[in-house]
């Protein structure tokens, strides 16, 4: 079927032509309810409920959903499907199951997470079950283990490089929106509030900062360590009680492991900027993430299996893992700082700032995020352990 943009009634029709999916829903199509829940920037998402079960249907649009004059290739849905397939066995049950991908409609049909809530929303409403970040740490360790050169023969990594090399449109978004635009005047950056303008101008004239950002640009584009989720913010996670799931892998690319870690921690830290009284909760989540990530990473990668470190014995491997984790922590620190800055003054800012009730407190929260982000980017090479990162974040 040639591509067209689905609405509720054409999706119902499409589903009736896919017997396996229709039988998951059960009953007759007239008994199904279909509602659109799109809240991301890029795609359309429908949830379909039937008497026997429910489905989540996500379709790419030929443009950015929230900016119809910004064209965007449909193939991002293909990369999301590939990412889900490449990581599903490793991360299960921490992601929804992909049931079907239609490569003409650029449509993913997956497990419907219900009654799950987007993590960012749950954080804002104070409805989280503390400790959720341990699942995310485990998720990153497992997805990395499944796709790294240390644990897989190099042919596996070469295939991943080839499978995701074409995801350039979304990598371009990362390069522009995270790694470049916030540090220069750019029409995509929304105008900051007047009180923040001097801070933004200072960041955009800060040469030492720009050199440090340059190093992170180089890391992002050349350190092809493992398959990244690529967009691991708190809006790409859904949770209900202790069931925590990662969604929205369309930005997948081979890259530095600290990029996924840094985006996640950056969004936690941004939440604490918007809600300063929650500094201890966020510190505990950052700690839970890092401890679970490093523990699982060590356990999974110490057995090897790849061509990288093939000559090392157990003792050497332990030392090499320590050195590797040290460099991942430094990347994490830098990318965390970048994320804090771009989500504060760039395109696609975070809702966490709505927690600030007065305009003054909102500006103060944003200023703190910019200042912290800058410190993290500049001081990343001096961070040697989690305590060092937490000290730079000054959340406690
Ligand atoms: P985008 O790429 O446009 O950001 P997302 O994959 O983040 O799209 O999905 C947008 C929204 O759709 C999510 O914030 C969530 O509310 C809902 N959603 C996405 N996947 C699922 C799912 N598997 N089950 C239930 N709801 C989902
Ligand atoms: Mg999303
Ligand atoms: Mg929702
Ligand atoms: Mg997305």
Write up what this structure looks like:
It is globular, with a radius of gyration of 21 Å. 51% of the residues lie in helices and 12% in strands. α12 (314-345) packs antiparallel against α13 (359-379). It folds into 2 domains: 8-111, Phosphorylase Kinase, domain 1 (2-Layer Sandwich); 117-393, Aminoglycoside phosphotransferase (APH), C-terminal lobe (Aminoglycoside 3'-phosphotransferase, Chain: A, domain 2). β10 and β11 form a beta hairpin. The protein starts with 7 loop residues before the first helix and ends with a helix. The chain has 14 helices and 12 strands. It is of the alpha+beta class. The structure holds adenosine-5'-diphosphate and magnesium ion (MG) (3 copies). Residues 40, 235-236, 248 line the site of one magnesium ion.
Number of domains: 2
What would CATH call the class of the largest domain?
Alpha Beta
Order of helix and strand elements from N to C terminus: HHEEEEEHEEEHHHHHHEEEEHHHHH
CATH homologous superfamily grouping of the largest domain: Aminoglycoside phosphotransferase (APH), C-terminal lobe
Structural class: alpha+beta
Strand content: 5-15%
Unreliable spans are: none
- Biggest sheet: strands, sense, closure? 5 strands, antiparallel
Could you please say which CATH topology of the largest domain applies here? Aminoglycoside 3'-phosphotransferase, Chain: A, domain 2
InterPro entries: Aminoglycoside_PTrfase, Kinase-like_dom_sf, Methylthioribose_kinase
Organism: Gluconobacter frateurii NRIC 0228
Protein name: S-methyl-5-thioribose kinase
Pfam families: APH (PF01636)
